[in-house]
Amino acid sequence: MSSRALVLDRIRRALSDVPATDPPYDQAVPRDYVREHGARTPAQNVDLLAENLADYRAHVHRCGPEGLAELLARLLDEREARRVLLPAGLPRELLDAAAVEVLDDKTGLTAQELDGVDSVVTGCAVAVAETGTLVLDAGADQGTRRGTLVPDHHICLVRVPDQVVASVPRALELLAPTRPLTWISGPSATSDIELDRVEGVHGPRRLDVVLVRG
């Protein structure tokens, strides 16, 4: 018997005494909890998102569409980035002002090639104001999950206020559980060893978040 068959068999035996009249899972648990804390305008949610992102040591920037290419060029230059990963769903014109080699993350990069990428620029699926969290679901403007975890520098574009929601429950209403979801709260970090904070452990060492108006 395969491991999969063994696990499924144990689940069937564990559920064998559940009555057929039992309510389905999505109705069995009452979900009458508070869905967001307080009443805020969309602009206030954006401000709260920026505040919480900064608290997680992400670098937050604001601009309009007309200044985005120039801002991206400056951020990449500050990191001395030369090879930049750009998902197919984002226009290459975004990096026209940057002196970089642009790589498409759907070209089948090997692990070694991906390790040589300096920065990745992506969009996001949704951003959560109350927790300062960005959620990626591998959409066309976000690319592959490994493309956002291996490079040392991640620039994430958030359309504001459209992509900002107040709380995690509000975000879950917009996300498909069948997609590969990556929840990002600040740059990758751990304090497991003697409570010393170390960044860049299992993801990018630096996270730049650009809040793009309109």
From TrEMBL:
Domain called LUD: residue spans: 51-212
Domain of life: Bacteria
Stated name of the protein: LUD domain-containing protein
